Automatic annotation (TrEMBL):
Keywords: ATP-binding, Nucleotide-binding
Keyword Transmembrane helix annotated: no
Alphabetized PANTHER family for the sequence: HELICASE MJ1565-RELATED
The name this protein goes by in its record: ATP-binding protein
Amino acid sequence: MTVQIELGTQKTGLPAEMDLEELLATRLLVQGNSGSGKSHLLRRILEQSAQWVQQVVIDPEGDFVSLAEEYGHVVVEADGSERDLQMIAARVRQHRVSVIFNLEGLDADRQMKAAGAFINGLFEVAREIWYPALVVVDEAQLFAPTAAGEFTEDARRASLGAMTNLMCRGRKRGLAGIIATQRLAKLAKNVAAEASNFLMGRTFLDIDMARASDLLGMERRQAETFRNLDRGQFVALGPALSRRPVQIAIGEVKTRGMGSSPKLMPLPEQPAGQDLQDLLYASTEGNMPPVEKSRPRPVDTQGVLRQLAVSSPPADEEPPGEAEDKHDEADITAAVIDILSQMMEDPEAAYRPVSLLYQDFQVRCRIARINRPPDLQGFRELLPIARAGGDVAEAASEDWPRATQIASGLPDTMRGAFLLIARAAAQGEPCPSNMEIATAYGTRSPGRARWLIGYMEENGFLSCSSDLRGNRIIGLPELGWQTAPGHPDGAEDRAS
């Protein structure tokens, strides 16, 4: 099926169209300096193609979240773990849901890691769900930079590798990359070179104009064309656009971005002299300047997992709130402890992400007729204790709250391992083996356990020593607790 979407008008007045099916096979590169109309162009493409193809937008500035209200995109906030983000991406492909992956508010390093994890999640799915999808990456030079910048090398490699996979190998998996950049010179060449369609907007730097003219097959003397373009005008070339370079003006859009170009407005009349100083230095009580109200946060990572989850409660189940609450607080606490203990009996529970465990927890609570189970944050606080193998009721003991308080200074994924060690130290038990610590950490790698112990020791959470037999002893300085000697490899591993 051939679908032509209208981008705007050519210089001759004829409509400027894009072959959507050809675009899926050949990819697109958009370039233009700030203010040239790149975001407007991307928005036009997304609006015109929304009814025809699944869309995934990597949005570093939160500029495209307004598409959600008009076209039903799900807004994914990048505030979960990399494992959560990859799982969401896989479900996005499975259920063919159009999404906006919002990276607004993250620093450069976290943006690159989150984008890399999400794009890899789109890429690494089973063959049977290789459905066609447009993957739009705004400000692509942030995720595929040519050189080092204000980010770590690990983040750069992860993001650049994901972008390279998208543009080089994504076609066979149904992923059509549309990348937009302010500076071609700052975009990795192996990423830009895979695009066969080009929309080049206003550009002023000689190095960018020269590279744009080379990509379009124009002579160097024609590079001045890009300097003379107005806002919203682009030179188009490619099998999905035109067989020769043509200048087009992008049409109107229905939705608006979160930001806009500043407009001049007259200054208000101001009092002079002492009156003006009084305005600036007056008491702040009752005289605070207006503060911008933050817009409602879109659905967060855990919310999206719940939206995309394939499982649903039984049809005959009573809606939450309608069933009679048959539990008092003591019964609820005991039931929650029992549910968590049952969940941790599953050997695979240690390796499942928190989002899936919480879904399982909610279903079990509904079956047990618990209408007021802990929320997600409360579940996150209880889960490390359960993963550590300790009864959740220990949290009410005299010394245990101090251990959980210290554990709160660690990332969520590390707290279970710390509390496992703390529980052994509190009861004078042998030091847990590397495999036991790795399981509480959510991995099957003993090497990760050794790294984790080193990390916690470097940050003052614990101290390690060994006896003459090679057994490990871990002390918790702030608690005054210490484990009994235990071999790092465990008794079973040494026997084998």
